[in-house]
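Hey,

Quick one before I head out. I ran the complex with zinc ion overnight. Inputs first:
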Amino acid sequence: MKDFSREVTLICPTCGNDQFEALDPNIQDLREAPDETQLRCPDCGLTITKGDLIQENSEKIEIAADEMAQDVAKEFEKELAKALKKWK
Ligand SMILES: [Zn+2]
């Protein structure tokens, strides 16, 4: 089986950039940062909290989750077909 853990990139709702920096220089890992962390898009200068950014991207995340589910279903069908062939 393939590894289906796909990383979902958060993108800037204004310009589509996917790189953010924390306004707090003590924060190194944005993934570990709390939702209220202020992030800044270096491209357009938008500042947004991590929680709001996730909210803005939630639709995209849902689509990615749907695609992932479809991939898993397809892969399962393939595995099942392979397994069934062995019995013939
Ligand atoms: Zn931006």
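The two ends are 22 Å apart (CA to CA).

Talk tomorrow,
K.
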